[in-house]
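Holo prediction. Input below; ligand is zinc ion.
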Amino acid sequence: MKYVPVEFDPGINVTRRHPLKEFAVLFSAAIGLLIVVYLLLGMAIELAARNITVAQERWLWSLTGDAPDETMFVGGPDDDEYAWYVAYVQSLVDRIPRDMIGDAAGYDLRVRVLWDEMPNAFAVPGGEIWVTTGLLDFVESENELMAVLGHEVGHFIGRDQLEGYGRGIVAFGASLALFGQGNGLADWITGTIDLLDLSHSRSQEMAADIWGLRIAYAIYGHAGGVTDFDRRMVDFTGDAGPIVAFLSTHPGGGARIRQLETIVADEGLAVGEPIPIDRSIEEFFAAWTAENAPPADAVLHKKKRPPASDGQTGKE
Ligand SMILES: [Zn+2]
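Structure of the complex:
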């Protein structure tokens, strides 16, 4: 049999499409696949967040939690004289009845105070509650502050903080998978996505508000002051209104106030006189031991309100 060499098409391994077009198709397919993976992982995280134990969460956080810059916090090595600030807020958190907060009682709920003029509070994975100095200047009653702290505990009860944490990790992993480490674009994306995403959904915020009400009511026996924070935030940032509130993950303050007022009315909850914040702090000082007594000038200064409407304030 005679061997007849076959003429190969020299272009057999070369696509006839333009290489840039080819790249575009592959690139969009990769992006599409990553989006699907991201969404699936998001669902898995939601499921995991509901099933992971508090002990596991604390362990996970101890492994992966970024060591925060200590100078961000009040009561650090350089400002001992303000340690009372942290101790005061901690004393309020310590009064939250642990038998009413379910699995969240498994957290060692620790308060840290951030040097930040924006009134804000955060539930951080592992059981830390971060509040800003701006929040302490902003609230006018102990009851109002307790409702905000109760709101954050509500996020721990819902394990909301874990979902945000998981989302950040997945986004970080996706950017690494797509662009590799040390790539300029990956660095940009990593810098843009908060690894620790502490924002929550509308329904999570509404549910946490109810916990703020329940906890304040359990402590004071009345609901006085529990809507004050949201009410003043509406004056401060403006109510987004029903349409924007529906679209936004952060429900307008008006909707949140109405939700609580409806519960107070429907359940006939008593509404008493809130304890003014300055009196609350004075009483805390009176119980503060002599060694820890703050300097005479360490009073709670009411700072000027920060500029309104940047959308960064509130209870995260
Ligand atoms: Zn919140």
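The pocket of zinc ion is lined by residues 151, 155, 200, 205, 208, 315-316 (CB under 6 Å). That is the main takeaway for now.
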